[in-house]
Amino acid sequence: MTTSPAPVILWFRRDLRLSDNPALNQAAETGAPIVPVYIHDGGPLQDRAGGASLWWLDKSLRALDDSLKARGSRLILRSGDSESELRRLIDETGADSVFMNRRFEPELFARDADIAHALKDEGVEVKGWNGSLMCRPGAVLNGSGQPYKVFTPFLKALLAMAEPPSHTTGPRTLDTPAGLRSEALDDWNLHPGKPDWSTGFDWTPGEAGASEALSRFIAGGLKAYSRDRDFPAAPGCSRLSPHLHFGEIHPWRAIERVRAAAEAGKVPQAEADKFVAELGWRDFSAHLLHNFPQITDTAFRPEYDRMPWRDDAAGLRAWRRGQTGYPIVDAGMRQLWTTGWMHNRVRMIVASFLVKDLLIDWRKGEKWFRDTLVDADLASNVQNWQWVAGSGADASPYFRVFNPITQGTKFDAKGQYVRRWVPEIAALPDKWLHAPWTAPPEILRGVGLRLGHDYPRPIVDHGQARDRALEALRTVTASRYDDLEH
Ligand code: FAD
Distance between CA 299 and CA 293 in Å, rounded? Predict the structure, then answer.
């Protein structure tokens, strides 16, 4: 008599795909039935996901369920505390192992280790793999065994040591026990109710959507990526960030396809290399968060926590709503609200404006991005905010203050981006588009634009704000020397 092996629970998290999925491949290797589950754990240790992220999660889970159904399986949905739900599922199915792709955010990593420990005591094996990053955080160390704090040597070391996994498509069929209880996704209310603020979200979440976005990029923006990626009106970047965040594509798969395009002579090698380097920033962010978990809440360079941040509720509100009076800033903030995403160049401009022109704590900006970005990612968001604020590991110096007018004229010279997102000033000629308050009254009258009525006057004077920011920086650096004297 043969007894069938005990099922393996396949715990999906931020790896919502079937191809290039190490945990799925390993589960299939065992030859045991597979129980694919997603647990919606509303507990405090989740990745602090905001509304836009949940919008994406909703669609991505539906896409994953469809893919599983096409292979004879389905996604079991459970909500509640992760450990309790796993235990319940183990009881219901008789599973003797849980396979997952690891989450590397420190709190989740520790929580998962606790779960593994607790279940091991009861004879259930918990195994994890890296299914989301080019390299497991903690693996890339310098010659003295210390984590890198500077990006370029980190990337060099990563590329030298990494062993890209070969491409896999996952098993053709999955044997999943029948009759398992699953909750209904609709009951989780991940899609916004009333008002539905997501009507402008133009995305195709899921594995197929990720692959199509990459194909579009390879056929389009990649050819001149290093130049065009800075121009927000150009289709110059991949828009893969939310797909990568939810694990709908493995970063090595994206790299493999981009490198193949270069090898086939379809795009210059230098452009493929630039794309790999940008993906490297994603790994660098995860690496920093892993090694310095305090950076979610405190400055990587501690002296920056003495910055005399201003408490400016009206300024913060104007920034969030895209009503600062600086068109490139307002365009970015409105693109974010309307689509759940913002172009990288403009993210830098709006972040600099908040932290330097308004002298508002970067943590308030990080929080707003976390709630509104479909690609909101704890490691990348925190790392980039600290980069702009000058307090990060390999950060832009604080004294480099972006000028929103020259940034606008340089990267949106013809104004396509600003005109799209700030339509009330669209009729202004290019010459004044990025600084409407400098337009002569007859020009404003000619286009029917009443500043302070149809569109705000600048909420701060950039020149004065810049001086104030630099003065604040002196406080930080001076107090550093004060400490030395004590
Ligand atoms: P592409 O130019 O096509 O780059 C390809 C991929 O490389 C991206 O999808 C992303 O995964 C990665 N990447 C590129 N630049 C960076 C970077 N600077 N840091 C980390 N990864 C990078 N990115 C997020 O994914 N989540 C965030 O929460 C996030 N918050 C940010 C906050 C601020 C203040 C700033 C300045 C940047 C932030 N970024 C964040 C980084 C970057 O803006 C986005 O990754 C990028 O705009 C996504 O567009 P794309 O996919 O077209 O990028």
Answer: 11
